[in-house]
Structure formats: structure tokens, C-alpha cells
Design goal:
heterodimer, A: 519 residues, Rossmann fold, Heat Shock Protein 90, 6-stranded parallel sheet, 4-stranded parallel sheet, disordered N terminus, B: alpha/beta, 7 helices, 47% helix, globular
């Protein structure tokens, strides 16, 4: 693509003109950025030349002419195909000396605004990347950060460039400072600027435009001026240049010099390729220095949207705030859910075990109460075999006393004693089951009819004592249930006992009918 | 009063007969065997109804009644006997310790009221007494 840009069998020559010396960051950043882009785009097939005109320190016509003659001589055998002029002074210089230095070349410029371009009265075909500064937006950003600011101090030096800046600022800031009192601090020595800045209160917004030269005629690098002023300032200092960032400025609305260099390089590449080119504007952005925000206790949240925050020691938290928060919230919610589930489960388990314990206590109390009520039955049941045993034992003794003891009969008597003893044991075992305090429910499968029958048997004596007839009607088919046999027996005994209690005042031939609902 | 002296000779009139109305089989069996061992004839019945249906009242000299019987109770049987065999001596036996019941039973009339388990001697003594007053 770039092949067509080659002139004959050689690579194209590009001359980059720097207006000042090599220490001025603004122009060197644009120049470096331009060089890098050009070398990238051509794959290194380009001859790059750099000239530092040093016009800030040598602004005299004599120097300019000498410089023009020198360059015309220097490039006699290697005329540039393209001249890139950085800044107003370089552009002005090449336009005046174009014929002697680079008569056939295209000219691309960058690093100044349209107002300056209009003043220069650029001829057709000279195209560039405009750096538009909007000091109003820088102040707006400052007001956003310092909402309680009462004063605005605008600082600029004594160079022509500085003075032009002040004029532009006066125009731009007229619309802004409604509730803010604006002061222009200019025409002072650098030390005086520092002094004045130190005297500013924190309710002031300080804006440093440029101090290229002070009242005493001392030439300065604007970034160094800004650095000295900002270091001593009693108020936050803002500026319109990205180069101020990292040297004491809080920030501003700036076109970055890197993007200016990129824009200039794009124009140069297209020009070398013979493509039509036209003016562009370097994109601008809000920039801020995190360290300065911290120094002045300003909030990052008050920055305009899209602002680029530099020099921030970013923590993991800041880099992954959303993710960390989302994960934290998730973990928190999950933990809460787990904890609540565990608590719920524990509470339920506790409630269940308490309920079961209460139930068993009640069952046991019932058992005891029933036991009291059924003591007659218990006595009756036990006294039957006991009575038989005693009589049998004494009968045996009588039989043994006779002259010819009927041993066979005695044997029978002893067998009956053994059987009755067995019966007594069974009764006691049954009672123990009924009266024992139980810790667990003993699930069993059995026929409901059986349990009813055994309960009624227990109740029999008591019922008779109260002259109550108990009749049961069992179902024809078995009623298989799964329950605690003793508890169920308890229920039936309670129902029957309650029924008998209720009939205490009723007729003596009362009848308690016990039939289950399954019939 | 027939008096022990008149009918006292068991050889002359044959052995005396005691009816045992008791629903508990082993209890009934043991009582009968005890009385047999003492030379008495016995007739066992498992309920008041069975006694009323089968017993020949004239052949019975004494009756031992368990108060707690299935169906008609021992006391009810005693009341029934009062009208037909007013002089038949009755001995109540019971496995239940209940003062009210005892009072009711004694009120109905009896030679003795025995709590199971009772000593064999106390039953024999009661029967001797019943037969003597017979």
C-alpha cells in the first residue's frame, strides 16, 4: 500500500520540525508518537529527520533566518518528501522557508488550534491535526470536584504564547464564572507565581495555563513552572495539558499529545500514499491524577463520566469491584441461606424432639393416671394366680399329710403352681410395658382389634367395679396399623375410662360401647 | 336350724357339697382340689348363669362365689339366691380390694368375705363355719 509513496527506487524522506528544544515534553511526545506510528506503518521503510528549532529561546528573526539557511544547505541532496511541523512556530517557519528547504514536499502540521491556524493564513494543501483546548471544560471539571469553590485563579506567564492563552481563557471563562470570582494572575516572576499560589485558600480553583517565560524574561518549561506552582499551592491546581498530569496538576480536559502524534502520523501516511487528506481534530478527554485527588480530599466519584484516572494504586478491589461485590453478595446470600437453613433445621429438630419428649411425658403421665385407675384391674389380674398358687401349695401340704399321699395329684398341683407363677410373670411383664417411661416410640405392625381386646381385658375389673358393662364389636377383617402398641392401648384405655367417668351419674346399667370407626 | 349335730355325721348323710362359682379356671380348680383334699364334694361353675342353669340347689350345702364374674356378678347371684334359697350359706371371694364392694357384699349377706390370695385355712374355716350354721 505504501509502495506508491516511494519516490523512484528510494524510501520517502520525512522531516519533523520541533519548535523548541528537545526538553519540551509536549512537542517531543507528539514527535515520538508520530515517529513510532510512521515506522510501524511503513515497516521501517522511511527516512526520518528531526530538527529542533529552539524558537522559544531564540525567537529573533536573525536566528530564524540563520536556521532556514542552514536547513536549506543541510537538505540540499536529501530534500524531504514530507515535512511535519509540530506547533505554531514550526508551521510558521516552514511555510516561510518552504521554497529553500523542501520545495516539493507536502506539509502536515499538528499541535495548535484552529484560531491559531486562521491567524497563520495557511495556504491550500497544508493540512493538520488541530489540538483544541477547552479551558471552560477544565474549570467545569474543577467545579464538579470542588462544589463549594468561591474563587477561580487563572495563572499564565509573560511569553506571547502565554498572553494568547490568557486572552482565550478570558473569553472562554466569561460564561462559566457566575458564582465564582475569577482572578487572572499574570506578569509575575516564577517565584512570585509560587508565592501567590501558596496564598490561595482551599475554596479556590487554580488553573495554570502556561508559563513559558516569566516577568523577568526567564525562559521556562511550562511543565516545570506548573510543578513549582502546584507544589506550593494552597488550592488544587488544574491545567489544559496532559503533560501537566503527574507533575502536580489535579487534571483537566485535554487532548493528549500521544493521540495528536497518532493523528499527525495518519495524515502523513495518507499524504505519502497520495491519498487526499483533510484537517482533523485530536480527540480530547478528562484526565485526573489520583494522588492529587487524595492530596486535596477530592472524590473520584465527582469526576466527569469517562474521565481517565492516572497514578492510582489500584487495588484488587478497584480492578474487580463489580466482580468482587457480585461474588461477595452471592457468597453472603448463600451463607445466609445456609445459616438460616441450618438454624431452621436445628430449630425444627429441637422442636420435634421437644414435642416428642412432651408427648412421651404426657403418655407417661397418662400411663400413671391410667395405672392408678387400673390398679383394681392389676390387683385382680395378679391376685388370681397368686391366690391359686397359695391354695395349691397348701393343698399339696394337706395331701402330703395323708397316710397314702396321692403323688400323681400332688404332681398336678405342683404343675398348676408353676403355670400360675408363669401367668403372674406375664401379667407383671405386661404391666411393666404399660407403665414404663419410654424414650422412644416403638413402631410395630399389628391388628387394631387385638389391642382393643387387650385394653378391654385390662379395663374389665374396673368397669365391673363401677357396674359398667363394656361390650366390644370387633371387625371381621383384621385392621392392620403401624403404631406404638402401648400408646394405642393407652388411648383406648383413656377413652374408655373417660366414658366410664362420664357415666358416673348415669343409670347403674350404663353401657359403654366401644367400637372402632372402621366398621 | 338343721344344726351340726343332726346332720353332722358326714358318713350318714354322705359328704357335704360345696359349689364354687369362679370364672378363673386355675383358681376354681385349686379351690375345688383343696376342698376335695378336706373331704368335701365340689361342683365348679364358671359363671353365675351356669350355676343357676345347672346346679341342683337342694344338693348344695354351701356356695363359694367370686364377686367378679363375667355376666351376672357374684353379688347379683347372691341377691338372686336370697329369694330362692334364703338359707344357703355364701362365702365371697374376690381379687379386688375395694371397701365399698366389701360393704355391699357383706350387706347382701355372707358367711365370709375373702381377699385373694387367701390362706387355705381361712377358706376351710369359713366353710366349716358355714356348714355348722347350715
Amino acid at each position: 500500500m505504501f509502495g506508491s509513496a516511494q519516490v523512484g527506487d528510494r524510501v520517502p524522506r520525512v522531516l519533523i520540525l520541533y519548535p523548541y528544544d528537545e526538553r519540551i515534553p509536549a512537542t517531543t511526545i507528539i514527535g515520538d508518537s508520530t515517529r513510532v506510528r510512521l515506522l510501524e506503518a511503513t515497516g521501517g521503510k522511511v527516512d526520518l529527520f528531526s530538527e529542533f528549532l529552539d524558537l522559544a529561546r531564540f525567537p529573533e528573526k536573525r536566528h530564524i533566518d540563520r536556521m532556514a539557511r542552514y536547513l536549506a544547505e543541510k537538505y540540499t541532496d536529501r530534500r524531504p518528501d514530507l515535512v511535519i511541523a509540530l506547533g505554531e512556530e514550526s508551521t510558521s517557519f516552514i511555510l516561510e522557508n518552504r521554497g529553500s528547504i523542501a520545495p516539493q514536499s507536502r506539509i502536515v502540521f499538528g499541535g495548535f488550534d484552529r484560531a491559531t491556524a486562521a491567524r497563520l493564513r495557511l495556504p491550500d494543501g497544508v493540512v493538520g491535526a488541530f489540538m483544541e483546548f477547552d479551558i471552560g471544560k477544565t474549570v467545569e471539571m474543577a467545579i464538579g470536584l470542588q462544589s463549594s469553590a468561591k474563587h477561580l485563579a487563572v495563572i499564565a506567564g509573560s511569553a506571547e504564547f502565554d498572553k494568547a492563552w490568557i486572552a482565550t481563557a478570558r473569553q472562554d471563562l466569561a460564561r462559566i464564572s457566575r458564582n465564582i470570582e475569577t482572578t487572572y494572575i499574570t506578569d509575575l516572576s516564577i517565584d512570585e507565581f509560587v508565592e501567590r499560589a501558596a496564598a490561595l485558600g482551599p475554596d479556590t480553583i487554580a488553573v495554570v495555563l502556561t508559563v513559558l517565560r516569566d516577568r523577568t524574561g526567564r525562559n521556562l518549561i511550562p511543565r516545570h513552572s506548573l510543578e513549582r506552582i502546584a507544589a506550593a499551592a494552597g488550592a488544587p491546581v488544574y491545567g489544559p495539558y496532559s503533560t501537566y498530569l503527574g507533575h502536580g496538576a489535579v487534571g483537566g480536559y485535554v487532548p493528549t499529545f500521544e493521540s495528536a502524534g497518532a493523528a499527525v502520523a495518519s495524515l502523513a501516511i495518507d499524504a505519502l500514499a497520495g491519498k487526499p487528506i483533510s484537517d482533523v481534530t485530536v480527540p480530547r478527554t478528562y484526565v485526573a491524577d489520583a494522588r492529587q485527588l487524595e492530596r486535596w480530599s477530592l472524590s473520584e466519584a465527582d469526576l466527569p463520566p469517562g474521565a481517565i484516572l492516572s497514578f492510582k494504586e489500584r487495588s484488587l478491589w478497584e480492578d474487580y469491584r463489580t466482580e468482587i461485590m457480585a461474588i461477595s453478595v452471592f457468597v453472603l446470600v448463600q451463607s445466609l441461606v445456609i445459616v438460616s437453613l441450618v438454624l431452621e433445621r436445628r430449630r425444627r429438630a429441637a422442636a420435634e424432639s421437644q414435642a416428642r419428649r412432651r408427648l412421651l411425658e404426657v403418655v407417661h403421665l397418662n400411663q400413671s393416671a391410667t395405672a392408678g385407675a387400673l390398679s383394681a384391674s392389676i390387683a385382680h389380674e395378679l391376685n388370681q394366680p397368686l391366690g391359686a398358687i397359695r391354695i395349691n401349695a397348701e393343698t399339696a401340704a394337706v395331701l402330703l399329710e395323708s397316710k397314702e399321699p396321692d403323688l400323681k395329684l400332688i404332681q398336678q398341683v405342683l404343675a398348676d403352681i408353676r403355670d400360675d407363677d408363669q401367668r403372674a410373670s406375664e401379667i407383671i411383664a405386661r404391666m411393666r410395658g404399660l407403665l414404663k417411661k419410654r424414650g422412644e416410640i416403638d413402631w410395630q405392625d399389628f391388628d387394631l382389634n387385638e389391642v382393643i381386646q387387650s385394653a378391654i381385658q385390662l379395663l374389665h375389673t374396673e368397669a365391673e367395679r363401677r357396674s359398667v358393662m363394656v361390650s366390644t364389636v370387633a371387625t371381621e377383617q383384621a385392621l392392620p396399623v403401624r403404631a406404638d402398641r402401648v400408646h394405642l392401648q393407652q388411648v383406648i384405655l383413656n377413652l374408655a375410662t373417660n366414658a366410664m367417668d362420664a357415666m358416673l351419674q348415669a343409670s347403674r346399667r350404663a353401657q359403654a360401647d366401644l367400637s372402632n370407626g372402621c366398621q | 336350724m338343721r344344726g351340726a349335730a343332726g346332720k353332722g355325721n358326714t358318713l350318714e348323710f354322705g359328704p357335704r357339697t360345696v359349689a364354687v362359682v369362679e370364672d378363673n379356671p386355675s383358681m376354681r380348680k385349686s379351690i375345688e382340689r383343696l376342698l376335695n383334699a378336706h373331704g368335701l364334694k365340689t361342683e365348679g361353675y364358671s359363671s353365675a348363669e351356669a350355676f343357676l342353669n345347672h346346679a341342683t340347689a337342694t344338693e348344695i350345702d354351701c356356695i363359694v362365689i367370686d364377686i367378679h364374674l363375667d355376666g351376672m356378678s357374684g353379688i347379683a347371684l347372691r341377691h338372686g339366691l336370697k329369694t330362692t334359697h334364703s338359707t344357703l350359706p355364701v362365702i365371697f371371694i374376690t381379687a379386688v380390694d375395694d371397701d365399698a364392694l366389701e360393704a355391699e357384699a357383706r350387706g347382701a349377706g355372707c358367711v365370709a368375705y375373702l381377699h385373694k390370695p387367701f390362706a387355705a385355712a381361712s377358706l376351710i374355716h369359713a366353710i366349716d363355719k358355714a356348714l355348722a350354721t347350715d
